[in-house]
Design goal:
- The chain is an alpha/beta fold and 450 residues long.
- It folds into three domains: 5-91, no CATH class; 94-366, Alanine racemase (TIM Barrel, Alpha-Beta Barrel), CATH 3.20.20; 396-447, Methane Monooxygenase Hydroxylase, Chain G, domain 1 (Up-down Bundle).
- Helices cover 43% and strands 12% of the residues.
- It has 16 helices and 14 strands.
- The protein has helices at residues 10-13, 29-39, 41-44, 72-81, 93-114, 132-139, 152-162, 177-188, 201-213, 247-260, 280-299, 332-350, 363-366, 396-411, 417-437, 442-447, and strands spanning 5-7, 49-51, 57-59, 70-71, 88-91, 120-125, 146-149, 168-171, 192-197, 218-222, 266-270, 306-308, 356-359, 370-373.
- It has an eight-stranded parallel barrel, surrounded by five helices. Strands 1-5-14 form a three-stranded mixed β-sheet, with no helix packed on it.
- The longest helix has 22 residues, at 93-114.
């Protein structure tokens, strides 16, 4: 273990001297509550992070064991006492395992509620975090887990971690001959290796190498959907995305496999809308469209057994439960329910079997488990003067901003914060425009900068 990376468990915390100092003055419950509200920890912390009575951030690696907590400030002191310097990355493998259990449990509840007969399998994309400690913590969690590779190098790492056990492996991304050959070797080793066809040029190489190695390939197809999410990674989905087959190409692939006598090899349907999907409606729309591909492929005689909805399960970094790039407007249960219900309804309406559902949820598994603690090299504070009411003859935007200010402090309703923000932004914009056009003078503009 390098000096700047530490694996932490509640049981070992005491050995490192992570004990609350009785000499420190405890923070009042009112102060602690204010800190929780100010930094919104209760929402983005997701029961893993909290503020203790000393005002320190505490980490609960396993929310099922809430009494096992680590004081992050004391942990840093203990590491510094051993000669380690900041910055340092603290890793909590128990959080990884709890995230995996939580996602699996959400899909189990959704399947039981719907009466869904198919299985569920989480496939971890190692590109999210390739560290050995992460992959081994997940593999040894006792939970069912597959691995996803998006390149030849990643596939080599996946096969090394999978060992001699039979594992589900999904191969995405650009595939040259060596990548395809390596995936087929993994199939011969006893793994369930799904080679997902994302470009028409790949299928000929797959069939050639499969015949050369005398192995029956296990294939998937990535459908290029019209549905597209929003956010930073929206280009991963939609009709103009780089990967995936259009509807006409899916039909061509089916005919090529039928003529080659390998139609039974096509067993997995895959789509990917993008990472960190903020809006549950975008996810539901994509699943419903992809479910139509599942139905139509069955009509063509293709026995699709696995439905891989790809990634997209987001993390609420802000704790705002909104549609911003750093948040999501849904939880685990709603995510699982939307997927299971959409696929289940399509199957029931067309008399088709329920396929095994696969998700490639890497971000949602790993995001909470590491904490980077950095040394502070400087502090900058904004000095504010007390706001005063504008003059009676002041322009309407100034009056409006003052009314918003009073409403914020008098009601304290946090649910209205976004509305107040939008109102103030509009007033601020009007003042800036008015100043540029000569409607407002310098004193009036300075008023909004207090």
């Amino acid at each position: 273990m390098s000096d700047d990376m530490s694996m932490v468990s509640p049981s070992s915390a005491g050995e490192h001297g992570v004990l609350r100092s009785m000499q420190e003055v405890a923070m009042s419950s009112q102060e602690a509550s204010k800190m929780l509200r100010t930094y919104n920890i209760a929402w983005w912390g997701n029961n893993y992070y909290d503020v203790n009575e000393l005002g320190h951030i505490s980490v609960c690696p396993d929310p099922d064991v809430p009494e096992a907590r680590v004081d992050l400030a004391e942990l840093v002191k203990a590491r510094e006492a051993q000669g380690q310097r900041l910055p340092a990355l603290f890793c909590f493998p128990q959080i990884l395992q709890h995230r995996l259990r939580s996602i699996n449990a959400a899909f189990k509840r959704a399947r039981e509620s719907y009466g869904y007969n198919g299985d569920y399998f989480l496939v971890y994309p190692i590109k999210v975090n390739q560290h050995r400690r992460v992959i081994e913590s997940l593999i040894h969690s006792g939970e069912p887990l597959g691995l996803e590779a998006g390149s030849k190098a990643e596939l080599m790492a996946v096969l090394a971690h999978a060992g001699m056990t039979r594992s589900v492996i999904v191969c995405n991304g650009y595939k040259d001959r060596e990548y395809i050959r390596l995936a087929l070797v993994g199939e011969k080793m006893g793994h369930k290796v799904y080679l997902v066809i994302e470009k028409m040029s790949e299928i000929a190489i797959v069939l050639e190498e499969a015949e050369r190695l005398n192995v029956v390939p296990r294939l998937g197809v990535r459908a290029r959907l019209a549905s597209q999410g929003s956010g930073k990674w929206q280009s991963s989905g939609g009709e103009k995305s780089k990967f995936g087959l259009a509807a006409t190409q899916v039909l061509q692939l089916v005919e090529i496999l039928r003529e080659a006598g390998h139609l039974e090899s096509l067993q997995l349907l895959h789509f990917h809308l993008g990472s960190q999907m903020a809006n549950i409606r975008d996810i539901a729309t994509g699943v419903r469209e992809s479910a139509r591909f599942y139905v139509e492929l069955h009509k063509l005689g293709v026995n699709i057994q696995c439905f891989d909805v790809g990634g997209g399960l987001g993390v609420d970094y802000e704790g705002t439960r909104s549609q911003s790039d750093c948040s999501v407007n849904y939880g685990l249960n709603e995510y699982a329910n939307n997927i299971i219900w959409a696929i289940g309804d399509a199957c029931e309406e067309n008399g088709l079997p329920h396929p095994t559902v696969i998700t490639e949820s890497g971000r949602a598994v790993t995001a909470h488990h590491t904490v980077l603690v950095s040394n502070i090299i400087g502090v900058e504070r904004n000095e504010y003067t007390e706001a005063t009411p504008p003059a009676e003859e002041a322009a309407r935007p100034l009056q409006s901003m003052w009314e918003t200010w009073l409403e914020m402090h008098e009601t304290g309703n946090r649910r209205s914060l976004r509305e107040w923000l939008h109102d103030s932004q509009m007033d601020l914009h009007d003042i800036h425009i008015g100043y540029s056009s000569g409607t407002f003078n310098l004193q009036e503009r300075a008023k909004i900068a207090l």
